[in-house]
Amino acid sequence: MVHKVRKARYVGAPLLMISVNLCLFALFFIWPASIGLGYSFTSYTGVGTAPFVGLDNYERLSGDPAFWAALWRTLIYTGSVVPLTFVASLGTAYLLVSPYSKGKTIARVVFFLPWLISPIIAGVIWRWMFGENFGLVNFVLAKFGIAAVPWQSNADLSLIVVIIAATWMGTAFNMLLFIAALKNVPVSYYEAADLDGAGAWQKFRRITLPAIAPTSFIVVLLSTLHTMKEYGLFVALNAGGPGTANNLIVQYIYTTGFKRAQIGYASAASFVLLLILALIAVVQLMANRRKGA
Amino acid sequence: MAIATRPPALRRTKPNARPGSRTGDLARKIAASSVMWLLVVAYGFPTLWFVISSFKPAGKLFSYPLTFFPENPTIDGYVEAWTSFDFARYFINTLLVAVAATLLTIVASAAAGYALAKYQSWWLKIFAVCILLTTMLPGETILAPLFLVVRNLGLYNSLSGVVVPAVITATGTFMFRQFFVTVPNDLLEAARIDGSGEISTFIRIMMPLAKPIILTLAIFSFQWRWNDYLWPLIILNDPNQFTLQIGVASIIGAQNVNWSVLLGASVMSMVPLVAIYLVFQKYVMNADINAGLKD
């Protein structure tokens, strides 16, 4: 406790140290969040006055099929990408720390490369693979006598391609987190399990998974938040199409706010996204608490 | 949180290391290695196919049957991409944004992370929660008003408008906090006894110690900014200010996508990051990131 008292004496230095981040937080978080909330009750277009319209934006939003479609599509997308990424990153991490797999140096680099590639370029890479008339995938399928699959013009197939690309892209970072966690599982646990004659799956299920639970939680939370706001990958892969079928929520906000200059309306949509993300974070934090308790 | 995470003094590198002479070992080696190499092919192939295709002549890109290797390798696509777009400028703009943002991010995150690790007060705790909030509620949730704020600050259509709002990062701040927590307080106390000021101790003694973290965050920050698309797209209006991602995206946005140019441009835009990664690999691969969510 002596420690605490001594530390408390310093005010100026720590204040100075956090000053940059504190200013940035106030400027680029508090300020926009507050005026955003304010503008969501107006029909502001970015210029001129901002006429107050009350809850009108939110009412329009709740009756806007495009908004609901975007939200629903975002949830389907996130609900597919997060579990796939989880399995892929844990699987690759497990193989990279396993003493049984050979050639890990190269494998590590290959698994990690997609992290270096931007969503735009990743989108281009997968579009090149899955082009309807020119892609390698359809070419190979044709070799086996399968008719060209409409990877671009069918909305659901198009979304599947984006999900594959997003999993491919998201594996690397989460794999890093899992590698660090797996390396920290005490060897003695496995040795004890060996003495008890536990099988590989049992050891994974009963020792590895519980031991890395805190990291699993971080992976799920961070990739959920990240996936919910994907935009670049869609721009490059299918431009949110065919038509507007694969417009996700961020694209919806971008289109209404910046293409149609409906700042007030877009602010309301942004605020709904903010609430959803906050809800996701709180639910996951609470679930994690309960599990840990 | 979880009970079984880290019993002290029992950490070792290989969780499964049980060098046994059981006959199952060879089978396991074969099984694990083949699964891993199958995944290596699955993860590596799309990029490989993409890069190889970029060396095909434009006329051969779509000619069936597709061949894996180009018959007459050419760099025409690259040359055309470089000349038909203002690619050099995009490169310089992206580099400016990435370098400036990275330097600022390191300074801001190191200082804030150090304060969170070595001082205690109620307002620092609140500050930590605020930083965490930026992860939970990213810029996309306040896209339109954030744009208005940046415009009001006179930063619209300037590269600083791309850089400044991106400097604050929870990942970076907590990376430093986590590191500085492990630096013994005795070191700080000793410096105080020697009469070194708090800020001076931080800059002269603590920052040099944090070199590995600085490098790790530098690579992360550089990657974030290099690959950023939506925010630069909103802030930058003048083609002279465009970054690489906007440039490449504009090629895809065209009515008829010129794939030869697109392939060349895309590959060129990836090269710097891949090069940086290959040089500083160990700083990335050993990163322990938890964005303040685990303690």
UniProtKB/TrEMBL annotation, chain A:
Residues 71-284 form the ABC transmembrane type-1 domain. Pfam families: BPD_transp_1. Keywords: Cell membrane, Membrane, Transmembrane, Transmembrane helix, Transport. The chain crosses the membrane at residues 12-31, 75-97, 109-128, 134-151, 158-182, 207-225, 232-254, 266-287. It comes from the Bacteria. It is a multi-pass membrane protein. It is found in: Cell membrane. Belongs to the binding-protein-dependent transport system permease family. This is Sugar ABC transporter permease. It comes from Actinoplanes sandaracinus.
Automatic annotation (TrEMBL), chain B:
The keyword Membrane applies. It is found in: Cell membrane. InterPro entries: MetI-like, MetI-like_sf. Residues 1-23 are annotated as: Disordered. SUPFAM superfamilies: MetI-like (SSF161098). The chain crosses the membrane at residues 30-52, 90-114, 126-150, 162-180, 201-222, 259-280. The keyword Transmembrane applies. Gene3D superfamilies: MetI-like. Keywords: Cell membrane, Membrane, Transmembrane, Transmembrane helix, Transport. It is a multi-pass membrane protein. Pfam families: BPD_transp_1. It comes from the Bacteria. Residues 91-280 form the ABC transmembrane type-1 domain. Belongs to the binding-protein-dependent transport system permease family. This is Carbohydrate ABC transporter permease. It comes from Actinoplanes sandaracinus. The lineage of its organism: Bacteria, Bacillati, Actinomycetota, Actinomycetes, Micromonosporales.
